[in-house]
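task queued by scheduler; priority normal; single chain, no ligands, no partner chains; default sampling; output format set to C-alpha cells
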Amino acid sequence: MTLYIDGDALPTLLKPTLLRTIERLQLDAVVISNKRISLGDSSKIRYLIVDQGADKADDLIVEMLHPEDLVITSDIPLADRVLNAGAHAINHRGTRYTPENIKELLATRNLMERIRESGEITPGPKPFSPKDLHAFANQLNAFFQEMQRRSSKPPRKADSVL
C-alpha cells in the first residue's frame, strides 16, 4: 500500500501526524503538489511537484494509484476518481470517502459551485482546528486498523486456493 497526499491544500497541522504515521507504519508515501510541500525528513516520503494547472496533481495521483492505496485529499472530485480506481480516500477533517457518501458529497459541492458562479457570496470552509486534527487522526488510525484486520484474516473457504 502506498499513501498519496494531495499536498495543494494540506493543512500544516496535519503534517506531524502524517509523518509519525508514515514512520511508525513504514509506509511508502508520495506527496504531490504544484509547489514545494514538506512533511519532514523521511526516507519513506517522495515529493513530486507538478506544473501549475487545474487537476495536474489529481491526474498524477490517479495515474500512479493502485487498488487499496490511500489518498489524503479534500478534493471531492479527486476522491470520487480514487474510489472508482478501487482505492481509499480520507479528507483533512477525518471524513472517509465511501461509495455510499461520495455522490451526495459531489452533488453538494457542485450545487455550491453553481451558487458561487451565479454571483452569490457563500461562506468558505471553517478554519482547520485541533478538533479537525483529532478527527483526522482517529479516522486514519481506524483505517489502518481495518486494513490490518483484513490482511490478517484467514482466507474464507471460498477464497482458498486448491
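post-processing summary
- The first strand starts at residue 2 and ends at 6.
- The CA atoms of residues 44 and 53 lie 27 Å apart.
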